[in-house]
Design goal:
392 residues, alpha+beta, Arc Repressor Mutant, subunit A, D-Maltodextrin-Binding Protein, domain 2, 3 domains, four-stranded antiparallel sheet, 13 helices, 17 strands, 39% helix, 23% strand, globular
Length: 392
């Protein structure tokens, strides 16, 4: 903790290791250091005697002079952080070479080198290991790279949002959602939201469920929608929708005549899998292991439409949610056979860091999404019965 000794004419800062146990009469030198604030805003160490006599009544942490003294050193360091330096730092990280980074940013290589060196000196850390074939990040550099990217992204978002406000927008909310939510439910839900709130804007990005959780934790968005099976850690969660997984096959496939299937029955056939981070792919791999078999995976594809196209091309069978098949596969002369496994019925969940701290627009969106399931037109519910209508 930092504080000041007012009676001394020169301003000093005290750094104590264990303030709660600070003695009234004497303090061992190893527990306290005295630093003088110079005109340049730097801290100069001033060694003291073995003990320092200092009554507690001489310390005023809340006085304006204390705050001014503490702020001088902080501001000196903060002035070293500017957007240009962060942008150049990111360029060096990505190019792994000062000359290429300088050419990319249109600045002299010597100027880039000086900025990086000044930054390292100011903070007393090494950001790079200078190697014969380029530059590699140190652990401190890795930490800065994360913060630099987040900072520049936030600045870009500020510019975008302010431009939108100048054009009449009255609110903005960022969302992350998995593919299942985006394809099956969000188009109608967001359409209804915009009908009620026409001057608001939504930035929606698709990510796998695990990355949705991470993005909400890191502040990349206010609201996320993911599989309820995903580990949401300390995030608040709210029910959103349910769906049911179906096996998509061609009409001439040996499984096409079944009304329902267990997942184990499909493991003797080639599968079209979603991308490796997909919650459906991960769960199906686990189910195959539980059945004592391995999936005969022919290919991984990025989306439900690609699964259906590969099935249509006789590459194998695929696993997708029932509502996604209604939207994508129903007109492709394919069959959707519901799985009877318990895990095939899935819940989608809304996640936020703290519902009490949402922006006004974020609160409106959360309330709307929570109420959306009860506002579906009658007969549009998800589940095995929905998929059964498209078997033939």
């Amino acid at each position: 903790m930092l504080t000041q000794i007012p009676p001394i004419e020169t301003k000093f800062i005290i750094e104590a290791a264990y303030w709660n146990h600070f003695p009234i009469e004497g303090t061992n030198r190893h527990e306290i250091g005295i630093f003088a604030v110079t005109d340049a805003g730097r801290l100069a160490y001033s060694p003291g005697s073995e003990t320092l006599q200092m009554p507690l009544v001489s310390v005023d942490l809340d006085s304006p002079s204390t705050q001014r003294t503490l702020g001088a050193a902080d501001n000196a360091l903060l002035r070293r952080i500017d957007l240009t330096t962060l942008r150049l730092f990111i360029a060096v990280c990505e190019e792994k070479n000062l000359t290429r980074a300088a050419a990319r940013e249109g600045i002299a290589a010597s100027a880039v080198s000086k900025r990086m060196n000044d930054f390292e000196v100011a903070f007393g850390v090494s950001l790079f290991e200078r190697l014969a074939k380029g530059m590699a990040l140190t652990p401190a550099g890795e930490a800065l790279l994360h913060h630099a990217r987040v900072t520049l992204l936030n600045v870009e978002k500020i510019a975008i949002e302010l431009a939108e406000y100048s054009n009449g927008v009255r609110g903005h909310v960022r969302m992350l959602a998995n593919l299942s939510a985006i394809v099956q439910f969000l188009p109608e839900d967001l359409s209804a939201f915009f009908q009620a709130h026409g001057l608001l804007r939504v930035d929606l990005q698709e990510r796998p469920s695990g990355q949705v959780v991470r993005g909400i934790e890191e502040g990349a968005a206010e609201i996320g929608i993911c599989s309820a099976a995903a580990e949401t850690r300390r995030l608040e969660g709210f029910h959103y929708r349910t769906d049911h997984l179906v096996v998509v096959v061609r009409p001439d496939h040996p499984l096409a005549g079944h009304d329902r299937l267990s997942f184990a029955e499909t493991l003797d056939f080639d599968h079209i899998g979603l991308h490796a981070a997909s919650s459906i792919y991960l769960r199906s791999q686990y189910a195959a292991t539980e059945a004592g078999k391995s999936m005969r995976l022919r290919i991984n594809v990025p989306g439900f439409d690609a699964v259906c196209r590969m099935v249509q091309a006789n590459m194998g069978i695929g696993l997708i949610p029932d509502r996604a098949f209604e939207v994508i596969g129903a007109g492709m002369n394919l069959r959707a056979i519901p799985l009877r496994d318990e895990w095939a019925r899935r819940e989608l969940k809304i996640v936020v860091r703290c519902s009490r701290q949402l922006s006004t627009t974020g609160r409106l969106m959360l309330d709307h999404l929570q109420a959306a399931e009860g506002q579906e037109p009658e007969g549009e519910g998800s589940g095995a019965d929905t998929a059964a209508r498209h078997r033939g």
